[in-house]
């Protein structure tokens, strides 16, 4: 399975994400945002966390105008797999690849702590490595993680079983405690918590590892 990790100026989780994917068995290529195309044969595009372009305008808004942006949108439109973590989730909403928006946390502070998440669906390559309803601990580190979507959008996410993870208890004011959502074709996941920071015992937890393992195994057999 071939994965491309995208780096923007200000990304700071790109290496961790590349390591987590490699440790799960992916063949990982690193891509600089100024490239305007993806290499041939990429199965998964991974958009990492961080502070792309200093979080100016809105988090992810400038990254979504980068030279690589068109290739990312095209990858999603042709049914390619994508994961956006934290700032990566913000970039995917700014690209229009995922619905909704990430707003300032209700407490108006930067939150950096372990969060407990509930796996709401295992019907995706990203969540197939978990049990439905499983509670996992994965760190959050954001000031704009408050997921919001209009009522009809929330209704569609629920009706189509596209809420991947929720916070339990609440963390940042997200509507319905949403921590991660899937695209309509279930091949794009955006999530604010950082599974790549919980994928190796050396960094204090391994609850994120099943996401990368399930993904790599699922795509290898897809
Ligand atoms: N760790 C991150 O990716 C930070 C995300 C984003 N820049 C925020 O603070 O909301």
TrEMBL record:
Protein's pathway: Purine metabolism; IMP biosynthesis via de novo pathway; 5-amino-1-(5-phospho-D-ribosyl)imidazole from N(2)-formyl-N(1)-(5-phospho-D-ribosyl)glycinamide: step 1/2
Catalytic reaction list: N(2)-formyl-N(1)-(5-phospho-beta-D-ribosyl)glycinamide + L-glutamine + ATP + H2O = 2-formamido-N(1)-(5-O-phospho-beta-D-ribosyl)acetamidine + L-glutamate + ADP + phosphate + H(+); L-glutamine + H2O = L-glutamate + NH4(+)
Residues annotated as the enzyme's active site: 86, 194, 196
Compartments it resides in: Cytoplasm
GO MF annotations in UniProt: ATP binding; glutaminase activity; phosphoribosylformylglycinamidine synthase activity
Functional description taken from the UniProt entry: Part of the phosphoribosylformylglycinamidine synthase complex involved in the purines biosynthetic pathway. Catalyzes the ATP-dependent conversion of formylglycinamide ribonucleotide (FGAR) and glutamine to yield formylglycinamidine ribonucleotide (FGAM) and glutamate. The FGAM synthase complex is composed of three subunits. PurQ produces an ammonia molecule by converting glutamine to glutamate. PurL transfers the ammonia molecule to FGAR to form FGAM in an ATP-dependent manner.
Record protein name field: Phosphoribosylformylglycinamidine synthase subunit PurQ
Source species of the chain: Paracoccus aestuarii
